[in-house]
Amino acid sequence: MADTHAHAHHDHGDHGEHAHHPTGWRRWLYSTNHKDIGTLYLVLAIIASFVGVGFSMMMRLELAEPGLQFIHDQHFYNVILTAHGLIMVFFVVMPALIGGFGNWFIPLMIGCPDMAFPRMNNISFWLTAAGLILVALSTVVGGGAGTGWTVYPPLSNHTFHPGMSVDFAILSLHLAGAGSILGAINFITTIVNMRAPGMTFHRMPLFIWAMFITAFLLLLALPVLAGALTMLLTDRNFHTAFFEPSGGGDPIFWQHLFWFFGHPEVYIMIIPAFGIISQVVSTFSKKPVFGYLGMAYAMASIGVVGFVVWAHHMFTVGFNVETRAYFIIATMVIAVPTGIKIFSWLATMWGGSIEFKTPMLYAFGFIFLFVVGGVTGVTLSNAPVDMAFHDTYFVIAHFHYVLSIAAMFAIFTGMYYWLPKMCGKMYNEKLGQWQFWITFVGVNILFFPQHFLGMAGMPRRIADYPDAFAGWNMVSSSGAVVSLVGALLFFYILWDTLRNGAKAPANPWGIGATTLEWTVDSPAPFHTHEILPEIKAEPAGHH
Amino acid sequence: MIKSRWMLFLFVLFSAGAIAAGAHAEVIGAPQPWEWYFRTAATPVQEDLIWFHDLIFWVEVVIVLFVMALMIYIVVKFNAKANPTPSTRTHNTFLEVIWTVLPVLILVVIAVPSLRLLFFMDKAKNPEMTLKITSHQWYWSYQYVDNGGFGFDSNLIPEADLKPGQLRLLDVDNRVVLPADTEIRLLMTSEDVIHNWAVQSFGVRLDTVPGRINETWMKVPAAKIGTYYGQCSELCGVNHAYMPIAVDIVSKQDFQRWVEQAKTKFASADDAAPMKVVQAETQSSIDAR
Amino acid sequence: MDQTNRLKEQQRGIRLTVAGTLLFVSAMVGLVAVAEPLYKLFCQVTGYNGTPRIAEGQSSPGGVAETMTVRFDANVNREIAWKFKPAVNQVDVRIGEEMLAFYEATNTSSEPLVGTATFNVMPERVAPYFNKIQCFCFTEQVLKPGESVQMPVTFFIDPDMLKDQYARDIKTVTLSYTFFLNQDQSKAKALSATQANYSN
After folding, report:
1. Which CATH class is domain B129-272?
2. ipTM > 0.85?
3. Most B CBs within 10 Å: which of A375, A396, A472, as the mutation test of the B interface?
4. How confident is the model over C45-55, as pLDDT tens digits?
5. Does residue C133 lie within any of the structural domains?
6. Which CATH number fits domain B44-120: 1.10.287.90, 1.20.120.430, 2.60.40.420, 3.90.400.10?
């Protein structure tokens, strides 16, 4: 949208609102401003990541050698693996990608002053924050929840987890889920109704498309989780028997409900990442996105098909062969739109004039490692092969390649890309590139050997393992150390940018950055797009 | 450095152990140090599974290398220095059709053998014997339903009690003994939470679910007589890591001999109390109440 | 003037969109609220999870030439101190023929206990053809301390199975029961109360 005319002027006039926007702690607690709330979400994700990553480091430390060295209580190991999963999914990846970048950049990119429901936005955030506190409590009250993030009954029922820990975890997800549903309603309403004049659906940046589709997935998936959790809660506390065989219930029913939510959930985490990568690839290639419509509809079809593949997480529960055959086919279908996305990114870069700045390096790394993690997904989608891999480290390797690596890379991409806009200062490019390479090497050493462990049959969720698995576990743990260095360096860069960063121009990325957020000052003023920009040209990639 | 020497020591220990355990069957299905591939396959199912995995694997390797090659080309040719003026091309219908249709074709190539293997591994044609497996927190119990109905529990050997050659976290006090060249039906259920009976060399991995029975099958040829190991593969609580599976596959004759011994060894006193027949109720009679 | 019109239009749009999203959410909530009965119905209709047909009040269609082996399996949950086993391990039945089999249960504890049984058949493919006419699993069973009972099951296998190309080559089917301690032990309490009265 190089030829977009954005008539946004920020220098004129005292608006009434300017006079009395709160300062100090009130500014954050009562915040209704989409940028402040976005910042709050990002801060929440960073705080949660200290805990979530801390737990994973504890696990890798214990797993470095066979035998129990540091964690002598297996239940404690189960508790931290559960908390690691819940925190990383619900309180790191989702708040960062959806709450953080979504709140910051949906209004900026579609050209409206704020979200449709600023106060509801505030509630969404504080529900999520309360959820984080509850999930943290669930690790300490009542002995801790050692159920895995999947919370399968009967292990999670009152008999096997008598304390309050699982109830805390359930309530935590209830709160975070309610927050996300409200957020999704806000996103959809904003995107549908408040686009600047001239910005038709087919002119929206792909990041907006991604958030729009994600919001729908949230809307459809989270009520199912909430319902299932409520049933589990009543099973635990009020003697119902939804999942209790002794009362005529079926534990497998939980797995169906959970994965009906759980599979769309993985797309909830990765589709926003697709959106960010599309923006960054286009910006740094100085080219519009290749096959814009194909990209948008590929995301939409991934979202739709994502709802009908859930039982591929349950290939070993013993359901009939025809059902498994269906879920194999349906799951493999997802590879097609995913392939369209990968090849469209490559085609966007093809013929481009690419500047490999840190965000682009991360986007580049994302594409390659998402392909690596994606193809093992095709392996796992085949139920016969899943007979060898289900619940082994191969699965761990697969989903950490697409989540820990790909989704985290997308978060890093977005942070480096939008940091100048969010705080008005430039990060240190050299340090940023170092940070990328350290992280890239670290996560690969960390997760690639886990494929081998899975091939050899090492089960997941164990703190001690047969001695033969020692070698690759040591390699994996040393990769964890390297990744940790990368993560710490990122926090240093963040601190360094805020403290010493050079002043960022409105558009630090040059002619490739065509979306509306680059037309406003850096840092983006408290109020933006109060006079609506007008989009007169065809959007990126739609000539 | 220290680490690798230690690994070598472990390896030597294992090999020595394997020889020392000569009295027992040869260990075939155990994980090896630095293993990066499947354990030895013992059943036709697992052999097919490995073949099929390798097919998918090489297809995927080609895809990954292809993407990698494109990306290297992009780095070299289309960096800002090499190519200062970006093109503005955003469409190529031919390409877009190709990269939609080609993956579909590749998936069809994968799906056909996948489904064939799926249906093959699903059910036995005519099993000759049945092994009933029940999981508990945290041990397995096995019942030889067709061989006199005896059964026993199989517990992990604690680290302190390991004899030379026994594998830590894998060896158990009572191994399952099963005949070679025999189609065996495996019936599984659980007494408490969900566990999973997984022995990779057999291509068997099935959840044990409380309140229901699950069924699968296995058949090991006589050429693959030996000992196989597996572990519980569904998080089942505190001692999830401590309920391994060890299976001795023996010849049919050896199996008969073992059964005779086992019948006395694992005999259980069965009390015969007077029985009365209860009147079974139908759903309608309950509804009528 | 134009601006106010635009805002009015926008407000209307926002109201409509919110209504739409709320509709989505409530539809999903509604769906999950009825998911449990739907799941049970689905299992019963399709034989999913190995759920056999309940055919009480029906009579068997009469035997055909083909036979099949029916195996009986029994399990007891750890919370209930019962012994429970089939009277025989397996029987050969003619397909379509009505068959009566027995299970035996003993209360090995020193107090009366109420048990309920869950059941399924494997291979799952046979489940929709496996018709149970009479069964103890439909109801709570109360056993006095030390008491043993025989529990009958009447069933037949629907000859339609022979028309199902995926099911007709299955020669053996396993019928499995698991006894659980019923959450409602009031019947057991009533029993011990009456016994206490007798002894007084």
Report:
1. mainly beta
2. yes
3. A375
4. 888 888 888 87
5. yes
6. 1.10.287.90
